[in-house]
Amino acid sequence: MGVTYFKRYRMEIDLTRPLFEPPVLPAGYEVVGWHESLLEAHAAVKFQSFCLEIDANVFPCLGERDGCSRLMREITRRDGFLADATWLLVWRSEDRRSAEYCGTIQGVLDSREFGAIQNLGITPRHRGLGLGSVLVHRALDGFRQSGLRRAYLEVTAQNTGAIRLYQRLGFRKARTVYKAADVAYA
Ligand SMILES: CC(C)(COP(=O)(O)OP(=O)(O)OC[C@H]1O[C@@H](n2cnc3c(N)ncnc32)[C@H](O)[C@@H]1OP(=O)(O)O)[C@@H](O)C(=O)NCCC(=O)NCCS
User: Fold this and answer.
1) Cβ–ligand 1 contact at 50 (below 6 Å)
2) Cβ of 91 below 6 Å from ligand 1
3) 125 lines ligand 1 (CB under 6 A)
4) Cα of 123 to ligand 1 centre, how many Å?
5) Mind listing the domains of the chain with CATH numbers?
6) For 105-158, how does the pLDDT look when each residue is reduced to its tens digit (9 = 90+)?
7) Which of 14, 83, 103, 112 is the most exposed place for a label (fewest CB within 10 A)?
8) Closest residue by Cα to residue 63 from 35, 71, 97
9) Distance between CA atoms of 146 and 32, rounded to whole angstroms?
């Protein structure tokens, strides 16, 4: 094992300006609001979304099923947890016989009155359909409904697809931060 420093960007968005137009939700998908009973569904989607991604090195808990449950419990028990900025996506087949959870986002209020997006994840086979953009829009709208004027998220610099997406949605890089993580060398 050795310590690696991952470069990350804090990206911010001004909530007092009009938000981007959200993509239309494709047929079969539904956005579901927060309820305690959905904690494990959020955790399972988080794990499936992150386990093979760079962020599972930066935050090892994202690469473990139990770690994702712990993280969800920790986020939802924080004083600043915002149910209105926390959403789950479900997909149902046309005949309604099969269904799966496929997207998650969580929002919290930080000490400086910023809305903070925690983890946005879409499971691999549902990517590229605009679902990530839909969830970001729901979270930002939830922040606005709670009276917040600014929001931010942090993204690993190597996650270029996600950075491009956030820039397209109106987020701007505000600061560079470094996150130390223990990484196993091959
Ligand atoms: C980033 C992520 C949430 C995007 O979700 P999505 O539903 O595919 O997003 P949308 O369809 O609204 O937008 C697609 C954009 O995301 C980008 N993207 C990033 N990673 C992608 C991936 N693995 N597959 C498909 N698109 C991806 C695409 O490049 C595309 O941008 P482009 O049109 O400029 O090429 C999703 O890829 C994901 O869950 N990745 C793994 C977890 C992660 O890194 N989350 C972000 C943490 S800050």
Assistant:
1) yes
2) no
3) no
4) 10
5) 2-183 (3.40.630.30)
6) 999 999 888 999 999 999 999 999 999 999 999 999 999 999 999 999 999 999
7) 112
8) 71
9) 18
Ligand 1: nearest atom to the Cα of 123: 39
pLDDT tens per residue, range 149-168: 999 999 999 999 999 999 99
Which residues lie closer than 8 Å to 80 by C-beta, 6 or more apart?
108, 109, 110, 111
Query: Residue 111's pLDDT is what?
Result: 81
Q: Ligand 1 centre from 98 Cα, in Å? A: 24
122 lines ligand 1 (CB under 6 A): yes
Q: How much is the pLDDT for 177? A: 97
pLDDT tens by residue, 40-93: 999 999 999 999 999 999 999 999 999 999 999 999 999 999 999 999 999 999
Q: What is the CA radius of gyration of the chain?
A: 16
Strands 81-92 and 172-183: unpaired
Please name the residue whose Cα sits nearest to atom 43 of ligand 1: 121
Decide if 174 contacts 116 (C-beta within 8 A). Answer: no
Q: Which atom of ligand 1 is nearest to the CA of 122?
A: 39
